[in-house]
Fold these 4 entries.
Entry 1:
Amino acid sequence: MQWKVFLASATGAYHLANDQPCQDAGHFAVNGNVLVGVVCDGAGSAAESRAGSRFFAARITELASAAFGTGDVGARSDTEWHDAIAGIIEQARSELAETAAAQERSLRDFASTLVGCVTSRDGGCFFHIGDGFAIHQSPSGESVLSRPENGEYADETYFVTDESWKEHLRVTPLAGIERGGLIGLMSDGTSPFAVDGPKTGFFRPFIDPVVKFLREATEQDGTQALQNVLADEKTHRITADDKTLLLALVH
């Protein structure tokens, strides 16, 4: 089993117009058969949201990679997955809280959403707080999803920095990933053109040609191509938000 992973972010039209950097971040690690990937979206209203999204994407990836090792992750119950992921998030939050206190800031200043995966040929899970989207598409085209969770209004969501984060942590178990399978993690800026209208899986007219190219590309060339797709003017006409997409293929 081998993973090919492509990760790209692009600054949205709103931030470009205001000369502001991208608030999204993504990180991944492949250790043997195990893939850990995380995508985070910093809250625009939080002073250090860019730093928060970068920290959580990198640190949760590191902690999860260390926790689950390099072999197959093994069979776990829903509760076991939830408890393991919650422990990792708790540690990352505690570390950032210490940094925030040293800077005389609060954890809320680093507000960020979180969507990620731990997976291998033996199984795994998605984990999710807030908006964004996660999809596992099997070789036959069937999908397992982790959909966004918004608040009372469409533009509200939940953050890993919230005091109530445990109430909004959603963990979705995954069966083993087969050859030809596809994992996708994305921020909410990507989902308007990467997810189908009914939110049942990838928007196939978008994802199929992208994946066809990526299967034959090197990770370097594929990542650059994915970056170009996210930064294309066509995406700016669909959404003004920042865009991050992680695609992982099994071959």
Entry 2:
Amino acid sequence: MVAKIFIDGEAGTTGLQIRERLAGRRDLEVLSIAADKRKDQDERKRLLNAADIAILCLPDDAARESVGLIENGTTRVIDASTAFRVDPDWAYGFAEMDKGQSGKIANARFVANPGCWPQGLIATVRPLVEAGLLPADLAITYNGISGYSGGGKQMIAEYEAAGDGASHFMPYGLTFQHKHVPEMTRYTGLSGAPLFVPTVGDFAQGMTTFVPLQLGQLARVPTGRELHAAIAEHFSAIADSFVVVAPYEEIAKTPALDPQAHNGTNTMSLHVFANDSRAQAVLVAVYDNLGKGASGAAVQNLNLMLGVSAKESLAA
């Protein structure tokens, strides 16, 4: 049976990349809205209700509107906005978050695709909280750098227009009210919000994230190898995972942390670096903000919901 898929917001950055990944699939029929009817609520409503699965690539309010336009009890939804990410009635779409998460996604009617920034934090911190190596009330700082495509059409246009004059390193979210923080807090298992300082770089896509840890403040100080082992054990138990845990190395630098290292793929690589004598460590994640961080994750979730291989249409 051919599944009907409607991408509401297919002309945006995420929507275009999802459509590109789905090109050539014989098990899918992608329903498309005419360019002159993208803001026609009646036409969107018709397509939303005709779809087996609707993928929403819209701002939060528009995503809520689209869900409200679905009148049947059968259309399933993957929402790429932040509108439903902490809603208990929606499955969270980070398939590798826990051993049973892919099953929850597969059986869900409503799936909230994860944000790009939260995934790096969740992937590195959640396994350590669950293993008891980090307490849930630990004060966590989270930072990193992402390509300007994460800012959507407006930021892409601004960077491309600026050319050589574009900022190479621009921190933002300095009121610490970033829309991803509730999602980060809920799914890491932390009891308090992390201090999150994101940065946009002068490159189109890709990202590297960092969680620095002052382990000396803990009652029991884990070693770097213990941190690495807990993270590796977590992801080794997950089938069809796109998350790769790099070997533990005591090195001063590595090209593996290039934020563009996994561009065009759905791979996320995790790294642990530590100095046990100083009781310090840093947890690092590298992935494509438009791949595993957005459209790749959406296609992975779509595959799970359709009951096909999670890796269909996705480069590792």
Entry 3:
Amino acid sequence: MNITEYFKEKAALVDKWLDRLLPSESETPSILHQAMRYSVFAGGKRLRPILTIATGEIFGAGEHELLPAACSLEMIHTYSLIHDDLPAMDNDDLRRGRSTNHVVYGEAMAILAGDALLTQAFRTLADYQSTNAENKVRVISEIGKAAGTTRALIGGQVLDIQSEGEILTGHQLEEIHRAKTGALISCAVRIGAIIGGANENELKALTDYGEKAGLSFQVADDLLDETATSEELGKTAGKDAAKQKATYTTHYGIDGARKMADRLSQEAIFATGAIGRDARILQEIARFIVERRS
């Protein structure tokens, strides 16, 4: 199976589980549940849940443990996008090729839809049946940390906002994106490994893979923001430049950023060699991250 077919198959599986795990549109309060589903099912690559699935499958983990954890990451990721697009944040009107949540449902409902998706993610994690209670608690803790404030999603968003219009060093730029983008991607790999019962050496190698893949994703995103159209991206192209945000392309130039993305991808691939298992699918995902066009 090639990587395109793999993503298509696993994304369909993720969507099936998301449909099962989210409240239906008709359930009260219906407007909120419609807003939640509007953004969750707007499309997207499903990279984070697919990384969890791909890593877990390397260790023989089953669907009924992997998918709730994987879907919780997609709920958290989608909530972060809804809030990121709000007028108080990036003030964007296009996401995944559709009008952003607040444009359709209003700011108040968009805020609540994001809040509800975050809450639903942890309810999903609490409710799923696990064969190893200790690993389940560890997974919940991992996701809580990655979605939090210290070298994590929200903390990275804070640094990103504070850095607008500032000239940053390469280290400062990396600090933002290891947190804002990289934390959930690295977490996706780690929780798949934990659910699958990876040992500490295997987990260390996969953490290295996840960190390199997470950074390469952001560098590739910055390149796409400069070189792709809004139609290709499904979101507003050039918005980082308009907001005077520090990016890898503004700091290193387009050629320098391309070389960095390729280097990080190769380092991620190299890290899988220490796992001692067939990790070809993770290697293909690392390549896909830097070769994608959206």
Entry 4:
Amino acid sequence: MHTIVMATQKGGSGKSTLSIGLAVAAQQAGHRVRLIETDKQGTLSNWQVRRGLVEPIVEPIYNALDIERRLQALARGGVALTIIDTASGINAATTAAIRHCDLCLIPSRPSVPDIEATAATLSVARAWRKPFAFILNQTPIRAGHRTSGATAALDESAPRDIDEVLAQPFIVMRNDHQDALAAGLSVSEFAPSGKSAEEIRGLWQWVENHLTGGIVAAVEQEAAASAYPDVEFPILLSRATRQTSTDAPASYPLSTWADAKLDLDLDSNPNAGSASSLPWDSGL
């Protein structure tokens, strides 16, 4: 199973919308996908309620200690891709998500201040020696000098081949994204033949190629270690609360969706679409 984390220090960068778009694009490409939400704002959970009990399923997990065990359970259940949407800023859950990911995606609007605000997230990714890439999101239709300036700023922030750290294509600001979110859909479901859907599918193809081909920033751990000095972790779990997967009690297996064998047919499930019908409310 591959795990992607969508993280950045600055709010309003479009992490949740991109997480949904990539998850559905991957699902449409034939992968079994799960979304994890660590942001208590609940954008993904609210989207799930509007969508109904239809995959990809959203699981809210706010405790940093639960993330690794849940990822292990999802992998055992046959999930091919998990995308973790994190809260703005740097906290224990975001740090844990980056620690256990295969690729950290850092969305940013195309402005120098927004690029500069990604430094804290980039610091955590480098500290854990994790591959990372930037996504230029909410770009103007006629980007011009603004996108060029943002690209130059990224080149300074992550001194590697820009083709390795800047995802393609850029995601243009269009109403399709917000309209799809309000309808409980992704943009590739809401307007499948539109330009926004085409961009999201192209972005997923770029991400998939980099995941499977390994052509991402910090491709070799030794190279990364020599390129960057050790970075102090912004968030550390205290010794009293730190818990490894081997310490997990046997009564907390964190069952997968497949383990629950729940009916995903909306026509036959009278509780579909209600928050109370979701598996985490049943103690799974």
